[in-house]
Fold these 3 entries.
Entry 1:
Amino acid sequence: MTETVSCAVSISGLSKVFNAGKPNEVRALEDIDLAIDEGTFVSLIGPSGCGKSTLLRLIGALTHPTAGEVCVNDKSADQARLDRDYGMAFQTSGLFKWRSVTENIELPLQLMGWSKQERKDRAAEMLDLVKLSEFADHYPREMSGGMRQRVAIARALSFRPSLLLMDEPFGALDEMTREHMQTEVLDIWKKTEKTIVFVTHSIPEAVFLSERVIVMSPRPGRIAADIPVDLGERVFETREAPEFFECITEVREALRFEGNAG
Amino acid sequence: MISRFVRSAAPALIVGLGGLLLWEVTLQVLQPEGFVLPPPSEIIRAFFADFDEIWVATKNTGFIVVTGLVGGVILGVVWALLVSRFRLANETLTPLAIALNAIPIIALAPIFNAWFGLLSPVSNQSIVVILVFFPVFINTTKGLTEVGDTEIELMRSYAASEWEIARLVRVPNAMPFFFTSLKIASSLAVIGAIVAEYFGGRQDALGPLIVQNAGLTRYTQAWAAVLAGSLMGIVLYLLSGAFERASMPWRPAPETTGS
């Protein structure tokens, strides 16, 4: 298990049962083994209720496994959380409406005890990264859904965590904004070289973004397929390339097989 | 700025003045016996004729209202903070608050007078405190506890402590709830103070002024004292609103529908 070098995430024998022993017991995840190399972009995809979000939250130590273990950067997931190794972004931006855009991005830095000036500088740098510098002093209610998600991503990256965990961050956006955001995220990924774990239920999104697509089965969630994606650099034309559609087909087949089995 | 104020206040003024006019005209036309319901013009005349007396009474009642309001708000907020932070406090103090609220509080006025002395302000202040505390407690608790899962999980992902979550998320989240309750409480405080004064406390206050004038069938003068109480309630409401806007700059201005 420890033979892999520079493993960002290493999961072994992981199971998660909610309400164990009660009539409403739910076996969410079973026998998950997964290793994610540092700097890779991995997507988790599966039918709704397959436990992909739960898996992400287990990596982020927001919930704890019933069996098995999760290691992040050679530490327990909990220790990694306390060391602030994660940045997280969710489907709803989770921006605080009483804080301006800058103040939202500064929040994690404030918790880490950074000085005012350091916070300000980093927030400006992050806003530049997500191309929202002119909105620094706006409040979240004055922004569109896509802009809010960009602020949320800027906030998640502000303290330079080694790992970015994203739970359907573009799920609530319209198709055009979504495609635009995907390009932005890839751009940020290239610039920052983070490890990204990305939960989605969109097959094209998973294929376009990732180097690796993990396909999960319906409940109890297991890893049904682990599909490498090699499409080279993503450009506008990538979405129209035959290889892109081949990959989509491959992922869809993996999901269909599971659909029939379940 | 002024024209915008006029535009936003105009509908309310028209309805208000129209209502008064209707009241005035109806009484002048139908001419029922004057002491049952005096026309607004006479109430206003009495208000200025007895202004000195009403002003002193308003100041004395105002003292009870403001001190009781401040006391009740502090009690409600502290109670809400405890209940939202500690489970034990929630299990013990929440039922106590509900039980306290279930008491017909005004009915306590004569008992409080026996406790604190018939002419003591403490009895009336206590009535206002208990009356005000509950809406503040209930609303503030709601604001402190109704925080989205995403927000809490985000804070945990930053390894924030419960105290930091309370200070940076729960308290700001509770602000709109708190101010809603403050607006309710400010009107309740005026009602509570005046009714409590019917039973005791200083005799040169609005409550006794209403009771005495009504007892002497000086209904117009009684109405003038009621008017003073209403004005006090309106001023407190407007102050709460101003305080609200000043402490929450992130909220949109209330009158944005026209823009």
Note: Residues 255-259 of chain B have pLDDT under 50 and may be disordered.
Entry 2:
Amino acid sequence: MVDVTPHGADLIPPAEVGEMDLYHPHSWWTKYVFSQDAKVIAIQYSGTALAIGLVALVLSWLMRLQLGFPGTFDFITPEAYYQFMTMHGMIMVIYLLTALFLGGFGNYLIPLMVGARDMVFPYVNMLSYWIYLLAVLVLVASFFAPGGPTGAGWTLYPPQAILSGTPGGTGPGIILMLVSLILFIIGFTMGGLNYVVTVLQGRTRGMTLMRLPLTVWGIFTATVMALLAFPALFVACVMMLFDRAIGSSFFMPAIVEMGEQSPHNGGSPIMFQHLFWFFGHPEVYIVALPAFGIVSDLISTHARKNIFGYRMMVWAIVGIGALSFVVWAHHMYVSGMHPYFGFFFATTTLIIAVPTAIKVYNWVLTLWRGDIHLTIPMLFALAFIVTFVNGGLTGLFLGNVVVDVPLSDTMFVVAHFHMVMGVAPIMVVFGAVYHWYPKMTGRMLNEWMGRFHFWVTFIGAYLIFFPMHYVGLVGVPRRYPELGDTAFIPPSVHTLNEFITVAALTVGFAQLVFLFNLFWSIRHGKEAGDNPWRATTLEWQTAGTPPPHGNFGKELPVVYRWAYDYSVPGAPEDFIAQNDPGPATQGGPATRGGPATQGGPATQGGPA
Amino acid sequence: MSAILIFLALVMAVAGWWLARQRLMSKPWLEAGPVNAFPATEASLLHPAKLGLGVFLAVVGALFALFISAYFMRMVYADWQAAPMPWLLWLNTGMLVLASVALQCAVVAAHKGQVDNLRLALLVGALTSVAFLGGQLLAWRDLAANGYFAADNPAVSFFYLITAMHGLHIIGGLLVLGRTNVRAWRGERPAKLTLTTELCAMYWHVLLVVWLVLFAVLAGWAADFVDICRQLLS
């Protein structure tokens, strides 16, 4: 490269942000409740997401109890089972994972990692959280509505979603669900604008795109995808609301319901599936890309080694983001489609394995000959790689039309997507919490509770989902609350179902240890100091821990290097922080100037 | 889904063009040093609010592209009957064009520091936009008076739904434009209003283009155009 400059050549004074440009809270309410500080908003987002996630966890227990011991629990009727299933899926995918990765980690990490004082539009950011909370409350309200929440399955396929045979279909359940989703999308769009513009315009001096930590790349790309994909869900929800509320026929065909002709006529349920999956497939990567990014940083930091193939990692993230918009119909093989379409979507689906495999190779090669510290974040990161590969391999089977058609309605699919989209990202969530908790609170999480939590969760997740593949291959259908006496299902399936249920309950209770640890360690954890993991990225170089309002004290840091200078030969320590100018100058200060020095990060204004 | 895929291709072309200039081929591990080792890849000088609005308008574009996709997908079914187009829509379109022109004049006035012209242009922009919304409501009444209700016929349902969505976006813009008007008429200096005026103008131009496309789709010209293209190709 031509324009390599010697280490520490010229120290450019960082741009100072005047007091005027940062919103300062004036009271307890504006500091902790209606806060515009991205760090507080991040904690609000994470807390709300975890709380509603616990509800979804309990729902999964109830489902497992029914599947493992059918008929034992009177209150789990088939209707209730469908309601549990629907709400479990919807909450986990959207209200927990999406909100936690983008709203939680995005808000906390983006400003700190790019060296900004806050998001560029703090007020809009605050609104984003409150609308998200409203969406969650509307969702929770549907549990208490007459007829209960909708039981249409998390995909909400019409026509069944709004017919009387489906729980909540003719009551308020489905309406509340749709309204909640619409609110979520509006709130998310507000937050998403912030994440994108902050990465683009809020970066501190020297933080070029190719010096961004991969966490930021992952969250940034996922946000861009979400901004373009969520409108599809929005359109689908609004049109379904029309069909349900005023009897229009966007999705609803002519139907005879309970012996009566419904007012609908001629609509297309397939159209809903196209719209839904045009959102639904990118959604998988909206959850996966932040996980990819975070896990890259965890592995590099805890193996004390630079990430292998940084450029490839960035290109793979961008490539996956683009490809994921042209694979949606692989969720619709069983809905019937032109064979050429099936061929096209099977091909794109399998092509996406290429950038994904590049990432897996790079993680493994980062570990190769690294100084691996088996800290809890590292354990979770390793668990993620293993789980993601396992879940991804079954994805290769399901991506092919001929294999997908017989397997599509079996437990095999349930096992596949829980491995790849449930367990794998959750492993990253846990790893990230153990990694950044010391920055958020100033104290480490308890080590032994953490290790207990890890091993029970990791082994338990495999005990739950590995047998499920077998159950699916035997032909056990998914979505059935009870199998009854079915000739082709051997008794071993029932034994396995009981086993899976016991494992699921155990893993669920292990999460209580994690929750207890979160609260206990705020007071009783070991003091962490500013940089307990000796990491290079900017969030560990703040003016204090937890970082104060404005993040970086009087002056913003200047970035001199990429985020992965671990174990550099000849360096005094085994890491060099991104804002470390490096060894003393050899050739005197280089000339200052060039367009870059005048640019600097834009000062932040409020929303226009 | 062709409309949204074409729109996404456009967005990706812009994103790709921008990424191509960000030195994604550089090797950051070799390039420790001060910022001028990476010329021209830092944050641009564009105001964050303008970039934010640009990103938001891309989202709005995706939203309407998806509505259009749904419209075309629904169109091929047997029960589809084209909706009548009230002649009032032409007048409304004219109003929206006027609003867009007025706001462009406001931007020019703000840059030149002409207080009176700025106030006038902002007011004309807001009033013509309100007139557009009123006109759309009258068009709805016109349709309803002729017995076309939202639930009867999918084309009519789409007409109500899509015009309502577009109208909601205009209302959202009017909140900001209204605030700008109040600030201008209270005597704030044009220099301080430049940014918000520019943002309003940008928003209105895009919503005008969106409306023109929607009008073409709802009136059936877009489908005719696609048919002609298809015949030419085959």
Note: Chain B touches chain A through 66 residues (CB under 8 Å).
Entry 3:
Amino acid sequence: MSDLALAAPLSRPLPKGILLAGPAALLMLLLQIGPLVLVVCAAFTDWQLGGEAPNFVGLDNFRALIADHDFQASVLVTARYTLMVVPGALLLGLGLAMLLQGARRGRTVYQTIFFLPYIATLAAMSIAWQMLLHPSFGPVNQGLAALGLPVANWLRDENTALPVLALIGIWHETGFAMVFFLAALTSVPTELHDAARIDGLGGGWDRFWLVTAPHIAPIALFVLVVLTAHAVMVFDTVALLTQGGPGNATRVLLFVIYQEGFSFFRTNVAATATVFFLAITLTLGMLQLRLGRRGGAA
Amino acid sequence: MHRRSILMGSAALAVPTIARAANVEVTVLYSQPGLYKEAHETIVREFAKREPSITVRLLAPTRAYEEAASAVLRGAVTNSIPDVVYNGTNLLHLFVDRRLAVPLDPYIAADEGFARDGYIPAMLSTGHLGGHQYAVPFALSTPITFYNEQLVRRAGLDPDAPPADWPGMLDWAQRITALGAPAKGIDIKWQTTGNYLFQALLFSHGGKLLSEDGKRVGFDSPEGLRSFQLLREMVTRGGMADATAEQAMQDFIAGNIGMHLTSSANLNTLMAQIGERYTLRTAPFPVPNPDARIVSGGAAATLFSRTEDKRQAAYKYIRFATGPIGQTIMVNHIGYLPCSRVAIETPELLGNYYARDRNTRTSLSQLPRATGWLGFPGPNSLKAIDAVYAAMEATVAGRSTPEQALARSVEQVNALLPR
Amino acid sequence: MSRWRHPLLILAAALMLLPILWAALVSTRPQDAIIGARLLTMPSLDAIAANYGRAVTASPLFGFIGNGIAVCSLILFFQVLIMVPAGYALAKLRFPGRETLWGGVLLGLMVPAPVLAMPLFVMVAMLGLMDSLPALVLPWVVSSLGIFLMRQFFRRVPDEIIEAARLDGLSELELLVRVLLPLARPTLGAFAIISLVAHWNELYWPSIVVTSAERATPPFGVMLFQTQEAGTEYGALMAGALIIALPLVAAFLLLQRRFIEGLVAMK
């Protein structure tokens, strides 16, 4: 991960590439890799913020964390959340983009509306959602009751809390996915569609798979990676709406890290959880990229 | 002592005795600006008039106590802890264990005005830890019962005679619930930070948080079990919903809940949000016997300055903010309990305030029985609070019986306490 | 398909707007009529004045917005300054360490910023930058996403253009500034929106390094109306949320055309 290779031969004049990419590499080293290494180091100590000098404790923190039920739960919860939000936002974003692509009128207006949830401060919007979902006088339950449908205390029910948070996540991310797909669709040459029509590929689906899909695959992969990164680091909605509850139903990883670091003030435990977290996201990311390469997308 | 002379005495304290060559700056951090902002700014303005040689600078307030605590610990890394921090008294362990908080005892010993200003011992005790006074309470509250007069009346109960004990309370709750949806009898804000309401139940039944030697939990007892049982009974008999604190409060404001047991700090907000909807009434927290202890918690001023001249100046500021004048300003803005008897009893200060509205007197009436809001010792202090929270949540949701909840929280907290 | 297009779009738009409209509705209600009110309570002018008034006076919200503009534009400025040459080098030049750097960029795409907050804080503190503009800007000056986008864009620029410029005697820097940068405008526009949205709404990092009201950023001014202990002032909170979203909406409307065009370069 380090960029040691960059510091290579100094006898010759530096290649232009190094001059141009150097600042970026240096800053990444300083602002990302360096801190990362510090976090990993802290995971092997008993250091607590504001406390005395740290001692090396080996794998104690790791053992404690693996045995911690709250932590175990958080890995599963994060996975479930991601599996709901990423496909949801990806497909909805693609669907909306395809609908918009052919629209002659109102495109700008729709585009802006769909992007608004991504623009609005999620923390503040969480409070609006909370009011919408209020069990007794939230419009959601009032509406459902008026239609004779079952109501629930959505954020306090172990079965619904996480899906509801995922729904808010999808609401927030769909516009983000949409703009990327819209860009990709815009770039599909119209001749391709015309050619396909002439070749007798009449059905919408056929044309989608044969003409559109290969064209948007690289962007789809990128959106997949970014949406996954966003989903595994969900925090605002959890912190404001459920605080990880009921029980452990919405205890996502980043919330655990935050709680350990800034609510429980167990800095070393937070660092250890961070190391786990990074291991998981990196594995996921690599997997997605590899998959993308095998599929010929990247 | 005559009230007038007491007042004069505290005013005398404010007169600068020595003209300082250099101006000392004292930085102050507080939480919950939505609540405290105006009170703190007014106090700082008044203080500036009396102590021109000390500049008090209010830092950007944090949202919650935990965030202020976090700022203190971060400040320890960079040698930039604010001079004075208002924090939850249950977080005191964090600063004392790390040897960051400065004991106030020597300053109090050298301060003649301290005794005159009538600090209420029970409230001072909330800032006491390991034999030292580390914090002076600024704004404290006690849990009380808020109730909806009209809803209570509809259930055929007499709103002028609220129940004082738990059997009576649960009986009221049951009868209000019987009115049918959306009416619910009771709600207790068990989610409050630092297990505040759990400690209210526990301490009022005579239970202890920690064992004598402080190495094990003290609520592994009939009183501890009773606390969990009451939580469960409020659900099964009293119609309490498994809701978030926010939802329950909104439900109460909307007029659907008969009785809402929470910190007296909520009085002003509740009054503002209920408006003309119904008549809000208050009663003391239900207790098994009239002299039961009432947990009292809230923000207390803690001193962190590193140099002696800053400590002197910061102490003066703390004394002003927690003294009669500062406390009068605080109560007029936010309605918490003052810790100065002088402020309460002097008509020009708070005497008239308390005479005006009966709801404000409920919490005050519990003051003589106040006991501290406690934290757990050691590096896992706040994780332990979370373990008790999880046990309460499981009890309210019906996932655990009170016995299971007690057993699990005892086991978990014991494992988290320092040996 | 086309028959259903607009009904579907309208339905989707309504669902997406619902929480935002609700926030707007709440911001028009008096404090004592927000909870339990009927869905269609008439907005009251007094309440609007009270809520929006409180939103802008309870904290120096306009000051916060000014800070937000300063912080976001500085971040964006440095990000662009760094990502354009880096993206170009990764796309068109061979140099030792190129693959490593590209790996670092991909890694950076997946590491959520909040997990590095603690060590970054210690760094900022040791540099004596607490509660300063640089503290708010510094950690974000290099953007993996930005470098990624620029590299993808430059890869699509035909080599002939670059060769021609070189033959004209342009230095690598001149080539970048005079030839490539104008071409990259749409991509930069797209990146600008993403960067602005992210840093405008950021609550986590500022809450760690900001200690005085003079440095606070917009979400601070809004979230202070949310308190656990004494109840939330919903009207003012929603009013504030709408106010601070306006500059971003304006930026989006302004950059919208560019935005979509710019993302085309993604492939």
Note: The first helix of chain A runs from residue 16 to 42.
